[in-house]
Design brief:
With 125 residues, the protein is an alpha+beta fold. Helices cover 26% and strands 23% of the residues. It starts with a helix and ends in a 12-residue tail after the last helix.
């Protein structure tokens, strides 16, 4: 999946559009209900990601179940979250290494993890 495919999918799935809070093409995906980030797509210099080669790589950062992050980071296409909390976020290379279905599943997880918390009704006696 590339950034445009992700943008089309999140619009259909969640009704969200990319937000560009900086003076560049790095895009934030915000939850409709509370505006929390559930995704961040950015171009990062390869050496900053610990990758070989010149130029930039495009990554998608998503919030993830901390118990899943360790296993994902052992697989090709997954990196420690760039510029985010590495215990709760993971970076996915958008170079075709990670299958589209898996990216969509991780976006679903991230969207769910950033949903507003349900308020518990307080019991009065």
């Amino acid at each position: 999946m590339n950034r445009q495919e992700i943008f089309r999918w999140v619009k259909r799935q969640y009704g969200t559009e990319p937000d560009y809070p900086w003076q560049d093409d790095n895009a934030v995906l915000r939850h409709r209900k509370n505006r929390k980030w559930y995704g961040l797509i950015m171009s990062v210099e390869r050496h900053r990601l610990g990758l070989s080669g010149e130029g930039e790589a495009e990554v998608l950062n998503v919030k993830c179940d901390p118990e899943l992050i360790g296993a994902l980071r052992t697989r090709p296409g997954f990196l420690p979250a760039y510029h985010m909390n590495k215990a709760q976020w993971i970076s996915i290379l958008l170079d075709g290494t990670v299958p589209e279905k898996e990216i969509r599943n991780l976006l679903d997880m991230s969207y769910g993890l950033t949903e507003p918390k349900k308020r518990q009704a307080s019991g009065s006696s």
